[in-house]
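Field guide to reading this record: the first block holds the primary sequence, the second block holds the structure written as discrete tokens, and the final block holds curator observations. Each block starts with its own label. This record concerns NitT/TauT family transport system substrate-binding protein, catalogued under organism Paenibacillus endophyticus.

BLOCK 1 — SEQUENCE
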Amino acid sequence: MNRRMVMSLLLVAALVMTTVLAGCGNKDSDKVKVRIGEVTRSLFYAPQYVAIEKGYFEEEGLDVELTTTPGGDKTMTALLSNAIDVALVGSETSIYVYQQGTDDPIINFAQLTQTDGTFLVAREAVETFDWNALKGSVFLGQRKGGMPQMAGEFALKKLGIDPQADLELIQNVDFANIPAAFASGTGDYVQLFEPTASIFEKEGKGHVVASFGAESGHLPYTVFMAKQSYINKNEKTVQAFTNAIHKAQLWVESNTAEAITDVVLPYFENVDRDILISSIDRYQKQGSFSVDPVIDEAEWNNLIDVITSAGELEKRTEHSELVNTTFAEKSIEAVK
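BLOCK 2 — STRUCTURE
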């Protein structure tokens, strides 16, 4: 083989390689980027992490970027300022924005969790817990107007306990500092999410004695939402997003806590695997993970009752005003 032929073959090979690489680049660029802001990093959101790790978003042609935006106020600010495209946060935040007046409302389009995600943690373990034991105690609660606190108060009222009169209620501790405050001796009881509750049990700092999720009923506790203007301009993207979430929901529903833990482990590298399994098992047993993305009217009405009971609702906001179930319903038909 002469030198000219060798050079020709090398040139052809280079051109082929360039074409292949260009094709790969085009394939990646074809994916639509969606920026998600999650209100906190929590095992409560396991199906979202499953959707990412199992490649369901990629299958739907999406390239998602996940950012943790601690707190409902920060998450909603990020959404309103277009720093993110989709927010994963409590539906109450969309209602608060709507009540303030807006020509571009925040629309709830896919539900991820359907119960409160907090557990009642006591300093001492008890075999049989009686909610009346809370009366006269010091209770380290959550932020006023936030979903954990409102759902917790709603559950207590159903159980015949007046949170304002029967408890010494502490609500001046920032969300991120609540576990540390309890660990340092503040309060007799505290309301905690997983995996913090299980970590406290393992370390002997507290004991889970009851579930607020089991008492407050089904409601759109954590939901994917976006501006109406974004949805109007990106209907195919929102549908693809919802399809990916529903794929993850079906996978989570049909798998064990151990299997789910192995998928979401990269998001909780500093937490022991047995703690993650225990936490996910608790959420599965009380049915916290939504089995489909539909935000139905009964759940929405329960949410309105919770917010009204907390005195945070200026006027009733109907399901039809801030919920779009079209994408969720189509995902059920598309994903089997």
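BLOCK 3 — OBSERVATIONS
The radius of gyration is 23 Å.
The CA atoms of residues 140 and 186 lie 7 Å apart.
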